[in-house]
Amino acid sequence: MPLPKYTSTAVGIPDINFNGGLNTTGGPLSLKENESPDLQNVDFSKFGSVIKRNGYTTLNSSAIASSPEGDGLHWYEFDSSGTLTRFAVSVADGKLFKMDALDGTWDDVTGALTITATNHCYFENFLNEVYITNNLDVPFKWTGAGNGATMTVPTGLTRAKWVVQFNNYLFLGNVAVSGTRHGSRIYWSNFKDTGTWSATDFIEVAKDDGQEITGMRVLSDRLVIYKSRSTYNLLFTGDADIPFILPNGGKSNSAVGCASGYSIQDVNNGHVFLSQDGFYFYDGFNSFKISDKINDTILGFVDTRFDKAVSLNQLSKNRYWCSLTSAGQAENDRILVWDYFNNAWSIYTGISAAALATFFVNGTEERPYFMDYSGFAYRADSGTSDHPDGTATDTAISAYYYTNWRAFGDLVNQKGVPMVYIYFQNSNTTLTYAYSYNFENTDTFTQTFSLATSTDVYGTGVYGTATYAGTGGDVKRRNLTGRGRVVRMKFENNVVDETFQIDGLGTQAHLETNT
C-alpha cells in the first residue's frame, strides 16, 4: 500500500529579471516579479541584472574657499582660434570658478562681479560664451579667458532666473526690471547679438495668473516655458519684426507645471521634469506621469525644497538623476534615478548633490559630476567606494535589493523553500543573503557567502582539491529553513571596495499540501 503524500512535488521557479525597479505604491502582493518594494544604491542592466552602483571620486582635494554650498556646475566648450577648448565652471561662496582640463584646481575668475552666495545658477553656452543667471544678481558671463563680467541686459533689468538660447536669440526669463518683479516675462536679444537688447522685445506669458516661470528649455521647434502649474510653447515665426509668438496663448495640453527648472532634462525626444506630485515626461503637447510606482517615496521628500532639486541625464546608461531632500534634512541627500530603458526607479544614498552636471571630456567621453555642500566637486559613477566631504579614505556603499513577496501562484498553502540557486558575476565580494516569510518587517534568516573564485595558483595548489581563479559568472546553492505562505529575499553588501551583480535566482518552491 503506497504511503500518503504530505507534501507536493518541488517546483523550480526561475527568476532572470530584476529590472522592474522600485515600487513603493503597490500593495505587497501586487508587485510584479521583477519589482522591488525596497532597494538602495543599485542599478539595473538592460538584460535584467541588479548591480551595486558605482562610487564617486573627489575632483578637487581641498575645499573651495570656506567650504561652501555648490551653487552651480557646468561644462563649457568654446572655440579658441580654431581649437575647441573645454572648462568645468562652478559657482560657490559668491565666486565664479573655472578648472582647466579637470586638473583638480578651481581658479577664481570672479573679478569685479558681485555674486550672491547660496543661490542656484543656470547656465547656457552661446556665441562662444557661457551665460549665467541666479535669480538675484544681474546676469553675468565668462568668455573662456580673464575674469567674468556682467552681461549686457535690457534697460533696467537687475535680475533673471533663467537664460536659454533659442533659434540664435538669447532669452532671459522671470526677471526684475526697475525694482519690479515680472515673474511671467521673457526678453530676447537681437539675432546672434547678446550685446543688444530692446526694452520692448518681451512677452508676458499668462501674466498675473498667480504663477511664475519655473523653467525654460528648448524642445525641437519650440521653447517650452514652464510655470508652477502650467506649461507653454513659444514658437519662432521667421518674421524679423515679430520673431516669436505664443500661438493661441501658447498654453499646452499639459495639466501640470514644473517645480524646479533645474530638474528639466532632455530624455528620449522630450523633457523629464519634477512637478509638485512627482516626475513627468513632456512631449511638446502633453505631460505624462512617469513616477506612479514611487508616489509613496516622493511623499517622503521635503516638498518645500523641490525648487532646489537638481538633475542630469546620463545618456550613455539611460539614466535620469534628480537630487532631492529627504524628510528631516536641510540639504539634498538622496538621488532618485529613472532608468528610462527599463522604466525602472532606483534611489541612491550617500550622495549630497547641491549641483549636478554632465561633462563631455574630449568632447565624447560622457561623465556625471556633482558638487556638495562642503566645497567639493566629484566625478560620479566611478570606482567602488564613496568619498564624502572630499575625504581620501574609501567609504562603503550600503547597497541592498529586496525581491517582492512571492506566493508562487498560491495564497492558500504554506510553502517550504529548501534551497535557492543564486547566479552572479564573480567579484571579490562577500554577499549577504537574507529571507523572511509572511510579511515580516525584519530579515528572519541571514547568511553570507563569497562571490569570489579561488585564489589557488597553478604549481602551488593541492592536486585534486584546488580550484583556480577565473572570470565571468558562477552559481551557488543556499539551503533555507522555515516556511510560510509568502516569502521575500534580499541581497546586500556594505563593504568598502566590494560590488555585486546578481543575474538570476532559481528557487525550489515546495508547495505543501497541508495548511
Keywords:
mainly beta, 1% helix, 1 helix, 5-stranded antiparallel beta sheet, Jelly Rolls, 7-stranded antiparallel beta sheet, 515 residues
Number of DSSP helical runs = 1
**In CATH, what is the homologous superfamily of the domain at 7-52 and 400-512?**
Galactose-binding domain-like
Number of strands: 42
Radius of gyration in whole Å, from Cα? 27 Å
Strand content bin:
over 45%
Q: Give the class-level CATH name of the domain at 7-52 and 400-512.
A: Mainly Beta
Any idea of the CATH topology of the domain at 7-52 and 400-512? Jelly Rolls
Task: Characterize the largest beta sheet: strand count, sense, and whether it forms a barrel.
Answer: 7 strands, antiparallel
Overall pLDDT metric:
93
- Helix coverage percent of residues? under 10%
Instruction: Report how far apart the termini are.
Output: 25 Å
Low-confidence stretches: none
- What is the 3D form? elongated
